[in-house]
Design goal:
Largest sheet of chain A: none
Number of domains of chain B: 2
Radius of gyration of chain A: 17 Å
CATH class of the largest domain in chain B: Alpha Beta
Helix content of chain A: 55-70%
Distance between the termini of chain B: 40 Å
Number of helices of chain B: 15
Oligomer: heterodimer
Strand content of chain A: under 5%
Number of strands of chain B: 24
Distance between the termini of chain A: 46 Å
Radius of gyration of chain B: 22 Å
Helix content of chain B: 25-40%
Number of helices of chain A: 8
Order of helices and strands of chain A: HHHHHHHH
Largest sheet of chain B: 8 strands, mixed
CATH superfamily of the largest domain in chain B: FAD/NAD(P)-binding domain
Structural class of chain A: mainly alpha
Structural class of chain B: alpha/beta
Chain lengths: 185, 537
């Protein structure tokens, strides 16, 4: 996972200091957290949920329902599924996912990375920018001297947990033409 | 353990209601001290199998399992439930560099509870290599034959005569058209309904896992099962183990709780699998357990790469027995080890497994998921451990004492992975695929064999680019007669510590080059039978 130390290293390499990161943090608004459908969250903070509510539609794209109402509900359910899944992981893995959110909370990927590495200005409200950032992580070189394999690992973790949460939700099954588990009796 | 929907007779749950001895350690109010003739750590193919043999010879046996006790009525064929409850690290276990995702069972029944029932005898060439190159004695094909036959009887391993699902039949058709040899897989099932949900726990007790066979067999003889307890360390005095220390797990099972369980026994059997067994020795930090630093080394994975194809007909690979056909063509033609050989099989295709194995996100990913019913998938398992360059991985301890596996894929194996991408796409196009996508970060969907082959030739074969998986962790405590080159002897007995045995897949000095369950059954049945004779004397 991306650590503060490595963040700093990246900051230094790019001529940006942690102070700048903090400034960006203060200047950008984290999207509001969606409600939990009666679920009481164990792992995900309101900030995490806000981030997920913006990333989820970019990761799942057309797989989410078209109507706005169903779409909003689906995103909430993906986030609840995320929380349930992460709450069952080993403490050490939970710590790694916490670090991943810290990095995103610092607006690192959605503001600084694009600026530094792709030249795209960052904001939470433009799905195409979020998509660019995800692709930036996805295509990052695992052997990069600056970030190592951490961006790629962060991308895989983020995408996998989102996919797992959605595609185990029966609401996704029409889209992928899955009839669900056989009825035994 | 109560779900009124599943009304199939759950004889395992009934057995516990009628008095089989079981301690759910997550419910313990206080620390426990127990005694037994033999304590077995793990309840999978090695542990469950050994438990029955040792208990039937009159020994008082305790089985310690880190995972939960769940039985057929708890298995609802739901991916989210199963992966988080029944797999190591919620099915998210990965090698140190995150390059290989590892599926391992963690439940009463171990891997046999969630595997796909694929049963092969240990290949002749593997046994030969162990004898000739690895210093293993007494495990020749001839000497193992009675133990394969014993395993096949005990776990009802038989030919599977039901027609394959379309996913498997595509493998057969493709091979047939290309003149590539293939065969039918034998399965350990009784009254299988051909549902396709072996991987989420068999809801009808058809799969003959240790959960429904040898563990009940041991419990009927008076053995005690402790679930949700993590074996932590061995205490050593005067060159012998005097005690096993365990920690109870929390009710959710993902972290240790405060209660401890101490077990004193005459003999200790490690059967926690190829990551778990070395971990307990490493945590014990005693030189006599690991005098040559070999514990945790030579850990093999059969690294698996994947090729997806879009067929012109519905495949619906989520239904029907998941693995019924295979090809050993690229093992049989590469036995000289000049090139890395690989076995080809099929996986089940439930949506979460597919969605998380595919590359990428967004529109491209969604489009493949939309076509999921038409998806045909092949996997190739590399035969690692038979070449000087293929030395396997190393088990290490993380900061919290839980184990990890550091496994670097060798250049030799990467070449085999590239060849496997090509071989799989050839079979898929031969069986009628419209398009094929190697599961690789930089690959896309290719609409002709020429195009995919050209692309594969230039795809970088590197960690986190080609997506790799493993469902077979083997080795880590290799057996052999030379104490400086192996951890246990050819009977699974530790070279230095007389009252320690290792009876699981971690004793294999190479990978098996086939799905390892039957190899573990056969080898540990032999070991446990020999140990029982010694202990009851």
């Amino acid at each position: 996972m991306l650590t503060r130390r490595k963040l700093f290293k990246l900051g230094a390499v790019s001529g940006v200091t942690l102070l700048t990161i903090e400034t960006f943090h203060a200047s950008l608004e984290i999207p509001p957290a969606p409600e939990g459908l009666g679920h009481s969250f164990e792992f995900l903070t309101p900030v995490d949920r806000g981030i997920l509510s913006k990333i989820t539609p970019v990761i799942l794209a057309e797989a989410l329902p078209e109507s706005n109402e169903e779409r909003v509900l689906a995103i909430k359910e993906v986030i609840v599924g995320w929380d349930i899944a992460v709450s069952g992981l080993q403490p050490l893995t939970q710590q790694e996912i916490r670090k991943l959110f810290l990095v995103m909370d610092s607006n690192f990927i959605f503001s600084l990375t694009p600026r530094l590495l792709t030249g795209v200005p960052g904001a939470w409200d433009d799905p195409s920018e979020i998509d660019d950032c995800l692709n930036n992580w996805r295509l990052s070189d695992p052997e990069s001297l600056i970030t190592g394999n951490e961006l790629r690992i962060g991308y895989m973790g983020m995408v996998e947990l989102t996919m797992a949460s959605w595609y185990t939700n029966p609401r996704s099954w029409d889209f992928c033409s899955y009839g669900g588990p056989p009825v035994l009796f | 353990m109560s779900d009124s929907k599943n009304t199939i007779l759950d004889f395992v749950a009934e057995g516990f209601q009628q008095g089989w001895k079981h301690i759910d350690a997550s419910r313990l109010g206080e620390d426990q001290s127990l005694e037994a003739d033999v304590v077995i750590i793990g309840s999978g193919a090695g542990g469950g199998n050994s438990a029955e043999i040792l208990a039937q010879s009159g020994l008082n046996v305790i089985i310690v399992e880190e995972g939960p006790l769940q039985t057929s009525r708890d298995f609802h064929m739901k991916e989210n439930e199963a992966y988080s409850n029944l797999y190591q690290e919620s099915a998210g276990r990965q090698t140190k560099d995150r390059g290989i995702k590892i599926f391992q069972g963690r439940m009463v029944g171990g891997g046999t509870g969630i595997n796909w029932t694929t049963s092969f005898r240990t290949p002749t060439e593997t046994l030969k290599y162990w004898a000739e190159e690895m210093g293993v004695l007494g495990l020749s094909e001839k000497e193992m034959l009675p133990w394969f036959e014993w395993s096949e009887k005990r776990y009802n391993i038989q030919d599977w005569k039901v027609p394959p699902n379309a996913n498997n039949s595509a493998l057969e058709t493709g091979c047939e058209k290309l003149g590539v040899s293939w065969g039918k897989i034998r399965r350990n099932v009784t009254g299988c309904l051909n549902l396709g949900y072996c991987g989420t726990g068999c809801p009808v007790n058809a799969k003959q896992s240790t959960l429904v066979t040898t563990i009940p067999g041991a419990l009927k003889e008076g053995a005690t099962l402790i679930s949700k307890a993590r074996a932590e360390t061995f205490e050593i005095k005067n060159g012998k183990i005097t005690e096993l220390k365990c920690k109870a797990m929390t009710p959710r099972g993902n972290a240790p709780a405060v209660q401890t369980i101490k077990i004193k026994a005459r003999h200790y059997v490690l059967a926690a699998g190829s990551i778990g067994s070395p971990a307990i020795i490493l945590r014990s930090e005693n030189k006599i357990l690991n005098p040559y630093g070999l514990v945790g080394t030579r850990t093999f994975l059969h690294p698996v790469n994947i090729s997806g194809a879009i067929m012109p007909f519905p495949v619906n690979g989520e239904y029907g027995a998941p693995q019924t056909s295979y090809s050993d063509h690229y093992i049989e033609t590469r036995l000289d080890n000049q090139k890395s050989g690989f076995k080809m099989e099929c996986p089940p295709l439930q949506p979460m497994l597919v969605a998380t194995a595919l590359n990428g996100h967004g529109k491209v990913h969604a489009e493949i998921m939309r076509q999921r019913p038409f998806l045909q998938v092949l996997i190739a398992l590399q035969r690692d451990g038979f070449h000087p360059e293929s030395i396997g991985g190393k088990v290490y301890l993380k900061s919290d004492g839980t184990p990890g596996l550091d496994y670097a894929v060798s250049g030799y194996v990467w070449d085999g992975i590239r060849d496997a991408f090509i071989a799989m796409s050839e079979i898929q196009f031969a069986s009628g695929a419209k398009a094929v996508a190697p599961v690789h970060r930089d690959a896309e969907l290719y609409h002709s064999l020429d195009k995919v082959k050209k692309a594969i030739a230039s795809l970088p074969m590197a960690t986190l680019k080609a997506r790799l998986f493993s469902a077979h962790v083997m080795g880590g405590c290799p057996m052999g007669e030379n104490a400086a080159k192996s951890v246990v002897n050819s009977k699974g007995r530790h070279h230095e510590v007389d009252n320690l045995s290792i009876f699981d897949g971690s004793v294999f000095p190479t990978s098996i080059a086939a799905n390892p369950m039957e190899s573990i059954f056969a080898v540990t049945a032999k070991f446990a039978t020999e140990l029982a004779k010694v202990l009851v004397m």
